[in-house]
Design a protein that fits this description.
alpha/beta, Rossmann fold, 7-stranded parallel beta sheet, 8 helices, 7 strands, globular, NAD(P)-bd_dom_sf
C-alpha cells in the first residue's frame, strides 16, 4: 500500500454523491484536494465539513462540458497545485428512460457532453503533465451500464460503454510510462443519480431503491481509494461492484 499523503487529487463532480465521498476518504488520508463542480455554493458548503486548511484544498467552479473552461481551469492552476497526481473523472449523469426512437435530444446532449466529452477534456489537459513526470493515476467512474445494456438505457449505456473503451485505450496509449488507469464501474448506488435521471421527480427516484440495499457513495469511494494505494507496479484495470441485491443491470432482489 502506498501513501497518498500530500498527493494532489483532482475530483470532478465533487459537490455530492461519489465525488464528495471520494473527497472525504482522500482528505482523511492527507491528500491535497482540487474539487471541481458546477454548483459552487453547494461545493463550498460541502467543503466546510472537511475542515481542511487552505493549503490542502483548492476549489474550481467548473462545467466539464465547457472545453474552454476546462482548458483555462487546468492551465491557470496555481503552481503549487499544477502537478496533479490523481485525476478522478467522476462527473456524469443520466437523463430519462425513453425508448431510443422517442428520446429527448437535450437529454442525449447532456449525457454525451458530460459523460464522454467532459471526461475527455479533463484527461486531455491533465495527463500530459503526468506523462512528463512519469507518474500519475487516472480513475474513471464508469458503470455496470457500460457492460450491460438495459431497456430505456440506450444512450446512457452507450456513454458508459464509451468510458470503458476510453479507459482501455488510454491504458494502451500510456504503455511504457508509470501512469496508471483504472475504471471503477458500480451497479446501483443511492445518490442523486435517479433524481437527475427523472428530472427532479423524487418519488419516482425513491422507487428505484425500494426493497433492496443499494451501494452507498462511500462503498465506491473505498474502491477508488484501494485502486490508488496499490504498489506502483500494480494497475487495477477495472472493478465492477454491485450490491448483493443486484445480479445484473436488470436483475435485482426486492423485498416489498
Amino acid at each position: 500500500m502506498i501513501s497518498v499523503n500530500n498527493q494532489i487529487v483532482l475530483i470532478t463532480g465533487a459537490s455530492s454523491g461519489i465525488g464528495a465521498s471520494c473527497a472525504k476518504v482522500f482528505a482523511q488520508a492527507g491528500a491535497k484536494l482540487i474539487l471541481a463542480a458546477r454548483r459552487c455554493d453547494r461545493l463550498q458548503e460541502f467543503t466546510k465539513t472537511l475542515n481542511l486548511p487552505d493549503d490542502k484544498i483548492h476549489l474550481l467552479q467548473l462545467d466539464v462540458c465547457d472545453h474552454t473552461a476546462v482548458e483555462s481551469a487546468i492551465s491557470n492552476l496555481p503552481p503549487d497545485w499544477s502537478k496533479i497526481d490523481i485525476l478522478i473523472n467522476n462527473a456524469g449523469l443520466s437523463r430519462g428512460l425513453n425508448k431510443l426512437y422517442e428520446g429527448d435530444f437535450q437529454d442525449w446532449e447532456e449525457m454525451i457532453d458530460t459523460n464522454i466529452k467532459g471526461l475527455l477534456y479533463l484527461t486531455r489537459y491533465v495527463v500530459p503533465s503526468m506523462v512528463k513526470r512519469n507518474r500519475g493515476h487516472i480513475i474513471n467512474i464508469g458503470s455496470i451500464a457500460g457492460h450491460q445494456t438495459y431497456p430505456g438505457g440506450n444512450v446512457y449505456c452507450g456513454t458508459k460503454a464509451a468510458v470503458k473503451a476510453i479507459s482501455e485505450g488510454l491504458k494502451q496509449d500510456l504503455l511504457g510510462t508509470r501512469v496508471r488507469v483504472s475504471s471503477v464501474d458500480p451497479g446501483m448506488v443511492e445518490t442523486e443519480f435517479s433524481e437527475v435521471r427523472f428530472h427532479g421527480d423524487t418519488e419516482r427516484a425513491k422507487k428505484v431503491y425500494e426493497g433492496l440495499t443499494p451501494l452507498t457513495p462511500n462503498d465506491v469511494a473505498d474502491v477508488v481509494f484501494f485502486c490508488t494505494t496499490r504498489p506502483t507496479h500494480v494497475n487495477i484495470n477495472e472493478v465492477i461492484l454491485m450490491p448483493v441485491d443486484q445480479a445484473s443491470a436488470t436483475l435485482v432482489n426486492r423485498k416489498l
